[in-house]
């Protein structure tokens, strides 16, 4: 399908030239029904179609690449990118409720229970949970397998819960892929009233890379946080690991606490005592 030449900005048009090029690229993607991996017109071709400079085109492509809409490969060209999964970790509740695809739909997701054990928390985890370092905690590892159209990816998730507040865990419930937060709500009345979280781009351990199926040297996003119930007491320290190139994160607002500074994230470990 031929793309008509677009006129330059009129005097009354407040859009900047690079913004017009962004709209042009998105229009081309829609009109030609381009799919992930399909090639887009070159920088020179886009400049000719939009009647703007290549500088404006490069800025537009920079913005679109940052937004995850296109992917550029040196010497090969510009291509439609695989859509990303949008994650809003500030939403309370189950992980599935925080994810949407590029059309705003909730993705399909299955959960695999990796391990449940009891251990002793590091001093930083104990402080975040408001317990003594010698008090035992549950450590629960799960893997989330996500499928959204052409998107397929994984999230590695860990929950650390104090035995003083959560005396028992239903292993069969979790092994069946059921929600941990729903179990905590139904059994103990805990609701995720608000959370405090810290984000970092990190190099995965060998085990984390294996679980997420990352390529050598591929980074991941690590989110560490604490969940508080309506009374303001912490009941969960959690950690989630995502492939850095497949997710877009949205955050807003502030929590009522400030306990996760850089020093509090240096040791997020649990010394195992054994599997109950």
Automatic annotation (TrEMBL):
Biological process (GO), any one: negative regulation of DNA-templated transcription
Organism: Mycolicibacterium fluoranthenivorans
Record bears the keyword Manganese: no
Keyword DNA-binding set for record: yes
UniProt xrefs under Gene3D superfamilies: Chorismate lyase-like, Winged helix-like DNA-binding domain superfamily/Winged helix DNA-binding domain
Every HTH gntR-type domain range: 15-83
A Pfam family it matches: UTRA
Protein name per UniProt: GntR family transcriptional regulator
UniProt cross-references to InterPro entries, sorted A to Z: Bact_HTH_transcr_reg, Chorismate_lyase_/UTRA_dom_sf, Tscrpt_reg_HTH_GntR, UTRA, WH-like_DNA-bd_sf, WH_DNA-bd_sf
Keywords, ordered alphabetically: DNA-binding, Transcription, Transcription regulation
GO molecular function term, any single one: DNA binding
SUPFAM superfamilies, per database record: Chorismate lyase-like, Winged helix' DNA-binding domain
């Amino acid at each position: 399908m031929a793309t008509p030449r677009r006129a330059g900005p009129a005097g009354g048009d407040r859009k900047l030239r690079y913004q017009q090029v962004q709209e042009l690229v998105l229009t081309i993607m829609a009109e030609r029904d381009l799919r992930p991996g399909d090639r887009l017109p070159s920088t020179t071709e886009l400049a000719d179609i939009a009647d703007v400079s290549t500088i404006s085109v490069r800025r537009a492509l920079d913005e679109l690449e940052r937004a995850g809409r296109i992917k550029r490969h040196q010497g090969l060209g510009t291509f439609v990118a695989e859509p990303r999964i949008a994650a809003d970790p500030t939403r309370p509740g189950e992980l599935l409720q925080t994810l949407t695809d590029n059309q705003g739909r909730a993705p399909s997701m299955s959960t695999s229970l990796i391990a449940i054990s009891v251990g002793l928390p590091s001093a930083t985890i104990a402080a975040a949970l408001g317990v003594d370092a010698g008090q035992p905690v549950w450590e629960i590892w799960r893997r989330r397998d996500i499928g959204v159209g052409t998107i397929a990816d994984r999230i590695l998730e860990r929950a650390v819960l104090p035995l003083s507040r959560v005396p028992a865990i239903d292993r069969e419930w979790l092994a069946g892929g059921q929600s941990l937060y729903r179990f905590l709500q139904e059994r103990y009345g805990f609701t995720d009233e608000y959370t405090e979280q810290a984000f970092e781009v990190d190099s995965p351990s060998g085990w984390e890379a294996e679980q997420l199926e990352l390529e050598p040297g591929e980074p991941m996003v690590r989110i560490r946080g604490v969940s508080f119930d309506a009374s303001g007491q912490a009941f969960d320290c959690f950690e989630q690991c995502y492939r850095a190139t497949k997710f877009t994160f949205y955050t807003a607002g502030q929590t009522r606490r400030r306990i996760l500074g850089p020093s509090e994230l240096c040791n997020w470990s649990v010394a195992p005592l054994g599997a109950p």
